[in-house]
Amino acid sequence: MLNPxxxxxxxxxxxxxxxxxxxxxxxxxxxxDIGARCIASNSPAAFEAACDxxxxxxxxxxxxxxxxxxxxxxxxxxxxxxxxxxxxxxxxANGLQEDDQAALAALNKWMHKFGHVVNEGAPCALxxxxxxxxxxxxxxxxxxxxxxxxxPVAAQxxxxxxxxxxxxxxxxxxxxxxxxxxxxGQLTLxxxxxxxxxxxQVVRIQGHRPEDDLADTKF
Length: 219
Hints:
Order of helices and strands: EHEHEHEHEEEEEEEEE
Structural class: alpha+beta
């Protein structure tokens, strides 16, 4: 079973599986830089050295598909909402094709801001009243939840399912604080300062942390 932190799997489809591509190192480095923690291929041996070098999981070919630059982030978000990885097919013949390069560039731009959110996010029971919005929880840090919002972002959102008020709410991109109120089990967020840089924006809801219970140490 694959690590659930593998949000993106680049599936390299070599035209000749018997011929290791000279660009194998560059392709695995590109995967690592984008935030993909796993690659697949029809010739795992060709990528073994590069995967060891860049600490990227190397697995046999998987079933995926190709994505355009304007759909790849939507596809990734939908996959993570469903608790699944996004497997991206990339044809390899003397390097990657131009359209695949463009899709990876679009993905890299978004992942630069939100990579840890999708890699570590898992489906949860929290709900938002905005159409299309949803939440993931950090599978490693249970007191962090992530609210995914698609542009244009409404001025206000209500999140239900939290048991207590969060310590802080902030935009992941830029870390600007999001004003909020918590009453009767409802978290009301003021989203008036939403950015328009990305079609998908993410708000981090920071709950109660164990370290908040530590008393001050006096010497």
